[in-house]
Specification:
The complex is a heterodimer.
Chain A: H1 2-7, H2 13-34, H3 46-69, H4 79-98, H5 111-115, H6 131-155, H7 160-179, E1 191-192, E2 196-197, E3 200-201, H8 205-231, H9 233-243, H10 245-250, H11 255-281, E4 283-284, H12 291-304, H13 310-329, H14 334-348, H15 352-380
Antiparallel strand pairs in A: 1-4, 2-3
Chain B: E1 7-18, E2 21-32, E3 36-40, H1 47-54, E4 62-67, E5 71-72, H2 78-84, E6 86-89, H3 101-108, H4 115-120, H5 125-137, H6 153-167, E7 171-175, H7 183-197, E8 201-205, H8 209-215, E9 218-223, E10 226-231, H9 233-237, H10 240-247
Parallel strand pairs in B: 3-8, 3-9, 6-7, 7-8
Antiparallel strand pairs in B: 1-2, 1-4, 4-5, 9-10
Classes of the chains: A mainly alpha, B alpha/beta.
Chain lengths: 389, 249
């Protein structure tokens, strides 16, 4: 039923093209890495594969933020928290996969627990040796947090800047909690030294290529889900809540439920992105909860164009590619460049890159239509339409 | 007092205070089924607060509020009251600017308000017929595919009234519908409201006396949170107390 819902009565050609491009990247990039010899000019080096894979998870994170911010008007400054929680769930699975190969050789306890002199595995680590359980937690933990958080925040009608502030506080509180050693998540150092995933060596080129492909497929699914949600009549309701929340309430809707659904769905998407991010960068630590990370996601989304599906993806890819280049060439200046970019986009491209391009295209097609209508009016000598303007 | 069973709206002894300021003070107001009523009064008379109470946005400190003779409105919230059949138009036109005129109306049409139904259900032909009907009534047929943001101020007001009609409420509360309208638009709005009142109960809050005269209905004048005078417009406007609050003493 779900697959029928996703594919029946089609997605717009623009979305289908986007999905096709992402899936093509999932096939072509790994192929260029694995099939071509290193000397070949089109060979894609493995570090590049991991880098692009990481960008794709960022793109999925930005898309998830766009679902709540661009389409529903909820500016979350704490989306990094859901990303990091998904990442930690994956990290816990990867830690358990290490088994006796750790520095201390303890078959059950991860190294940091042995170091802390812990004798047994905390209860909340059990089950994470099974991939299916970790996969479940990757969606369930961020989803449950978003649901509980949203339930209280939206029902108390916390909106606008106040909501943004408490989302920021949420991710900050989680960061402080995860920094503590006795939380049992590796404290300051987080989780790292991963060996393999689903039995594949995590350092192997083939695994890296596979992770990129998985990230691309996840992003493509995220695009389809977002397009279906925003294209349904529920999507119109999302926009209605964004434009005039009180009006929806007096029409008999419950905007808090609309927001709660969007927020929870979005958190799940962010969690999946985080889970794919961790094996590609090889570490997850409390720094991922830092408020600045969440704000950076907002910047990507704003630059690409919020309220569009392509926008946040373009924004995340462009800004991060820029970041990789910039931090190599002029590392001290990167944050100034990012801040300046945000200011410039807000001032001159308030709809972002994609939003502005779409606007130009729309007004061009409108002008064409108007010219056509004028021509028809002259031909047919129609009476001018009535209406006060 | 009037028999409550025949009323669409029944307010008795309602009071509400904000930080000690009595916005509504022992207000009693009765609207019969099918009646259209104009409510006038100087700024701060409590007109908007009264609407807030009826639509569940504000809870009264005291007094009873009944809808349709039997439903105690003080025990319901905004969404429930909207579904019960009370539609409200705000003072400032409030429409969904980035949706088309058609989509604005489609969201207002009576039907399921549940999130999951909205995700999976498609619009039917019955809905389409209703939308066309409403577009005729509010004179926006030729603007069906426009984004609401592109409409003129007056057209937005009409669209909002159209959205109320889509809800198919028993009672419409209309807050200052002609503020900022041209004379031609004002007359058109009066005509529209008279047309609507043929099949709905309506309360119109308005400052514009010319417009109230156009409506030609019973008038209630509020002052400092309670009813100052009630009757035909001529009766109310010749009431010396009304003249006093409007012209100052």
């Amino acid at each position: 039923m779900i697959s029928r819902y996703l594919f029946e009565n089609g997605l717009s050609p623009r979305i289908l093209a986007l999905v096709a491009v992402i899936l093509a990247a999932a096939i072509i990039l790994p192929a260029l890495n694995l099939a071509l010899p290193e000397s070949h000019p089109l060979h894609v080096p493995t570090y590049m594969i991991s880098l692009i894979g990481k960008y794709l998870t960022y793109a999925l994170l930005a898309l998830s933020l766009d679902l709540v911010w661009g389409f529903c008007g909820i500016l979350s400054l704490g989306h990094g928290a859901f990303f990091a929680l998904g990442g930690y769930a994956m990290g816990m699975y990867l830690m358990r996969q290490i088994g006796p190969r750790g520095v201390y050789g303890n078959p059950l306890l991860p190294d940091f627990m042995v170091f802390l002199n812990w004798k047994e595995l905390p209860w909340y680590w059990s089950g994470f040796d099974q991939f299916w359980f970790a996969a479940l937690m990757i969606v369930a933990v961020p989803g449950a947090l978003a649901f509980v958080f949203g339930w209280f925040a939206f029902r108390s009608r916390v909106t606008g800047v106040y909501l943004s502030i408490i989302t920021q506080a949420m991710t900050f509180a989680l960061m402080l909690a995860f920094f503590r050693n006795d939380m049992g998540f590796g404290g300051n150092n987080g989780l790292t030294d991963f060996k393999d995933i689903l039995g594949f060596d995590i350092q192997a080129d083939t695994t890296r290529a596979g992770l990129l492909a998985a990230s691309a497929v996840a992003l493509a699914l995220g695009v389809i889900v977002t397009a279906r949600i925003t294209g349904s009549s529920f999507g119109k309701l999302l926009i209605a809540v964004r434009d005039a929340e009180s009006r929806t309430r007096f029409l008999g809707y419950r905007p808090e439920m609309v927001k709660l659904f969007a927020f929870t769905t979005s958190a799940v998407m962010a969690g999946v992105a985080g889970a794919l991010y961790v094996p590609q960068v090889g570490i997850i630590n409390p720094g991922e909860f830092a408020p600045a990370n969440s704000i950076e996601v907002v910047v990507w989304t704003a630059i690409g164009g919020r309220g569009t599906i392509i926008g946040p993806i373009v924004g995340a890819l462009l800004v991060n590619a820029g970041k990789s280049w910039f931090t190599g060439a002029l590392p001290e200046l990167w944050l100034f460049a990012l801040g300046g970019l945000f200011v410039l986009v807000t001032l001159f491209l308030p709809k972002g890159i994609v939003g502005t391009l779409q606007e130009i295209a729309a007004s061009a097609s409108e002008r064409r239509k108007a010219r056509k209508a004028d021509a028809e009016a002259v031909d047919g000598e129609q009476a001018s339409p009535v209406g006060a303007e | 007092m009037t028999n409550r069973a025949d009323t669409i709206l029944y307010l008795d002894g309602v009071s509400v205070a904000f930080d000690g300021f009595k916005a509504i003070n022992n207000l009693s107001l009765v609207l019969k089924k099918g009646e259209m009523r104009a409510i006038i009064g100087p700024n701060g008379a409590g007109k908007t607060t009264m609407m807030d109470i009826v639509t569940g946005k504000t809870r009264p400190d005291d007094g009873s509020v009944y809808f349709d003779g039997t439903v105690d409105l003080t025990t319901h919230d905004e969404a429930e009251i909207a579904i019960l059949g009370i539609g409200r138009k705000f003072q400032k036109p409030t429409v969904f600017e980035s949706l088309t005129v058609e989509d604005n109306l489609a969201l207002a049409l009576s039907g399921s308000r549940r999130v999951f139904d909205k995700l999976f259900r498609k619009a039917g032909t019955e809905k389409d017929r209703r939308i066309r009907e409403i577009l005729e009534t509010i004179r926006l047929t030729h603007r069906r595919d426009w984004l609401a943001a592109r409409l003129s101020h007056g057209q937005k007001q009409w669209l909002e009234i159209g959205m109320l009609l889509g809800q198919d409420p028993k009672l419409l509360l209309v807050d200052e519908p002609v503020a900022g309208m041209t004379d031609a638009e004002t007359e058109e709005t009066a005509r529209l409201l008279r047309e609507i009142s043929a099949s709905h109960s309506v309360i119109v809050v308005e400052h514009d006396m010319h417009f109230v005269r156009e409506l030609g209905v019973k008038v209630t004048c509020l002052h400092e949170g309670s009813v100052l005078s009630e009757g035909s417009l001529d009766h109310v406007s010749s009431d010396p107390r009304v003249v006093e609050v409007y012209l100052g003493r």
